[in-house]
Here is the input.
Amino acid sequence: MMGKQPILSLEKITKAFASNTVLNEVSMNVYPGSIHAVIGENGAGKSTLMKIIGGIYTKDSGEICIDGKSVTYTSPSQAIAAGISIVHQELSIAENLSVAHNVFCNREPINAFGFIREKELNRKVAAIFLKLGVDIDPKDRTANLSVAQQQLVEIAKAVSQNSRLIIMDEPTSSLSDKEVDYLYSIVDGLKAEGISIIFISHKLNEVFRVSDCISVLRDGNMIGTKETSETDMNEIISMMVGRHIDDLFPPKSTKITDEVIMEVSGYTKHGMFENVNFSLKKGEILGFSGLVGAGRTEVARAIFGADPIDAGELQLHGQKVKIKYPKTAIAKGLCYLTEDRKLLGLFQTTPVKWNIVSASLRNFVSIFGFYKKAKINAQSIEYLKKLDIRPFNDEIQVINLSGGNQQKVLLAKWLSADPKVLIVDEPTRGVDVGAKSQIHNLLRELSEAGIGVIVISSEQPEILGLCDRVLVFCEGKITKDFGNTAVTQEDIMKYASGVSLAENRGEKE
Amino acid sequence: MNRIKTLPKKIGTHNLALITINVVLIVVMASISPYFLTGANIEVILMGFVLEGIMAIGMTFVIISGGIDLSVSSVLPFAAIITGFMLKAGWPPFVAIIITLISSVLVGFFNASLKNILNVHPFIATLATMLTLRGLALAISSGANLSGFPESFFFLGQGRALGIPFPICVFIILALVMGLLLKKHRYFRQIYFIGYDPQAAKVSGMKVERFFLFVFGLSSGLAGLAGVLAASQYGAAHISFGIGSELRVITAVVIGGTSIVRGGSGTMFGTVLGVLFMAIIYNALVMSGISTYWQDVVNGIMLLAAIFFVEFMKNREKAVN
Here is the structure.
C-alpha cells in the first residue's frame, strides 16, 4: 500500500477559531481504494478536519495535496470538482423533491434552455442505484424514505459526482443493525470500484470491522495512523484517551451515606433510552459518562421534565413524584444545568443579577407581584462573592463574561433556587483551567452539604477525578455501573463505545 | 381507473381539495345569483384580484425560498407614482415603464442584500422597506392624485387581447412561464433545496445569496409591474393604491399550499388556485353586500385557516409515513 501515491495527503494542517486551536499540524495520507477510519473523542477535531478537506472551512496553514498536487480551495464546489464529497451526519435532503432530484442536486441533465431532462435524470439515477445495489425508485418523494435510505441517497449523490474520495461522517449513528450491515456492503462495493472512503466514527467495533487503517486524533493533534490488521482495540483506546489526569480535582468524598436522595427506575423513552435505573446517594457525586448521543443528556432532560417519557418512576427522598414540566421539577428542588448555556441556560443580553434570580423569581416578589429590589441585590452580591464571579459587577450583561464566569452565573442561578438535586451537563466545557477547578470544588462542597449532584461529562478526566461513582451510557442504556471500584479511562471507553454490547450479543448467539 | 387513481398523486391532494372548493363556491354562488356566471361578472371577479395575482407569482418564489416580502404593497403605489411623474413630464411610456421596473427590481435587491449582508430577517427588512417606500411615495406626490396621462399608456390596463383584458393576459402568461420554469428549469428549481435548508444548499455548491437577489428582485419587479398596470387601468396614480395588498397576496399563496412555516414546498399551480379562490371570495363578499370593513377580518381568518390546514396536512402525511 505504501508504494502507491496517496489520493489525498494532508501536511501540517492547522486551524484555530478565535484563540482556540482546533487542529494542530495534522498530517495524514489516504490511499486509493482504502477505507480510512478517523476516530477520536468528542471535540478531538474530526469534524473540523473533514470540513477543511471538503472545502467548507479554510485552513489557517498547511498543505492539501490531491494526487500529489497541492490544491487550495475556498468553496465546497471546488472540493466536489476535485473529486471529494462529504456524506454529512445531519442529512441535507429536500423532502419535497424526488429522490432523483436530490441525487443530482442542482446538477440535473438539462437541454439547451436549462430545462431538466426528467427521463434522462431518472435513468441515470436508476443506473447508479443498480451499480450500488440499492432498491429505491428514483421517482419517489424523498420524504417517504427511511433514514437509512436517505443516507443511501446521499451516498449516491457522492457517486454521481464522480467522487474518488467520499467522507462519511458518523454514517451509522441513526441506523439499525441490519441497515448498518447493508451500508457496509455498499461501502465494500465502493472500495472495489477504487473509491477511497474516510470513515468517521466513535464506535470502535464498527471501525475495526470496516476499515483498512485507523488514524487517531486527540485534542487537535494527530496521534498516529495504524493498519487495522496490525493493531487492536486496547492500543487504539489508549491512543484516544492517552492523557494523564492531574491532581486538579478535590478529594473524593468520605461521607457517602446510604441515604438515597433520588431513585430513578425504569425510565424509558422509545428510541432514546430504555429502562434506565439508578439511585443517587447523599454525599456522593454521580458521574454519567458515555459518548454524545448515548442518552445521558436525554435522561437528564426527562428527569427534569423537559421531555416526556414513555415509562418510568422517580422518587425524591423516598417519595414518589411525577414531573411533567421543568416548573414542577424546580418546585421539587430538582435543577438541571444545560449543556449549552448559550442556548438554554442563560439570558445572554440580560444583566448578571437577573440571570441569578431567574429560576427563583417567586422568592423575590411581594404578594402583589412587585420585585423586591433589595433582596435581589443582596442575593446576587452574595453569589458573586461566593462563586468569585468576575468582574464583580452584577449589572453587566452575561454576554460580556468569559465562559467560566458564565458557567458560574448559571450555577448561581440554580443554587439560588435552593436545589435538592443538581444535574450539571458538561459543567466545564469551554472553561479555562482555573475556573474549572473552582467549579469542581464548588460541586464537591454542595455534595458534602447534602445536595445530590450528578455530573454529565464527555471529559473522562473530569468524570474520573470528580465523581465518586460512574455510570456509563451507550446507545440509550446504562452499560456499566462501576460502583466504588477503581476505574480507568480504558474501562469507560470500552463500555461507552459499545464494545461490551457487541460482546454480549456475541455471547448470546 | 388507473388514471383516476393517480390523479391526486399527480396534482396533489391539496390542489385537488382547492379545485373542489373553488367549484363548490362557483356552483353555490351561481345558484344564489343569476348574474354570477355572466361574462361581465367573471371579468369583474378576475380584474378585482389580478394585480394581487401578479404579485402572488413573485411571492410564491419568495415564500418557497423561505422568506417573505411585505414591501410589495408599497412598491405598487411607488411604481404607479413614479411612472405617473415621468409620463406627466412627457417621457415616452415605454421609457417610463422600463425605468419604473428597474427601480422596483432594485428595491428587491436592497431587501435581499439586507438579508445577505446584515442577516436581517426578511420580515423586518421588507417591513422597513414597506414603510420607507410608502412614506417616500407620499412625500413625492404630496398625497395628490396624479392624472392626465397620454392615451397610448392606457392600453396596458384597459386594452384587450383576444377579447381578454390585458392585465389578465399578463397574469396568465406570467403564471404559465414562471410555473414552467419553477417546475422544470434547473436554475429555478434549486429554490426547493435553498428554501428547505440554505446551509445545506451552500455546502452543495449553490450560490444561495445570488439566488435571493433574484427571488426578491422578481417579487419587487412584479409588484412594480402591478403598479404600472394600476396606473394605466385607473388613468391615475395615488398613494392609496395597494394598501393591505401584501396580506391578500400572502394569503393567496399560502392557501395555494406553499408552506410559510418552512421553505422548500409549494407550486405555481397551487398559487393560481389560491388566487382564484380569493378572487371569488372577494367578489362574493361584495355581491352579498357585506361591509368592506369585514373584508380584512375574513382575510385574516382565511390566512390562519390556510396555515393551519397546510401544516396539519403535512404533519399527517409525515405521521402516516
